[in-house]
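Might I ask for a little of your time on a matter of protein folding? What I wish to show you is a protein chain and, alongside it, a tokenised description of its three-dimensional fold. I should value your view on which stretches of the chain appear to form regular backbone elements. You will find the record immediately after this paragraph:
***
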Amino acid sequence: MIKDIDELTEEQIEICLNSGTERPFTGKFLNEDRVGTYRCVRCHNALFRSDTKFDAGCGWPSFYEAISETSLRYLDDYSLGRHRTEIRCGNCDAHMGHVFPDGPQPTGLRFCLNSIALNFKWDETGEEIDG
């Protein structure tokens, strides 16, 4: 089920619906190291497993591989006067962040995410936490 706009915080609206970006090194999941699944905060679509998370040093949670080919949607983004690839939730179209071709192997990708756009489901307890 997709959350209605009145169920989202102001920050979630700015990031997920208006393609905003949280400030670097401020996100709740930047240093998260528990085992679990990162999901879209708006519709709970599974996006990334914690074993694909790595420290890119960029200030945002980073992953090298999405859960599936359909979990994300990719769009060309020229908003900063240069080409980037925006990533959106493949289910509800919420803005998640961007993907860059400078990540580690085996994919060589760095999916750079806004914590505010994510929900984390911890494997051990099933606890869910919004970014």
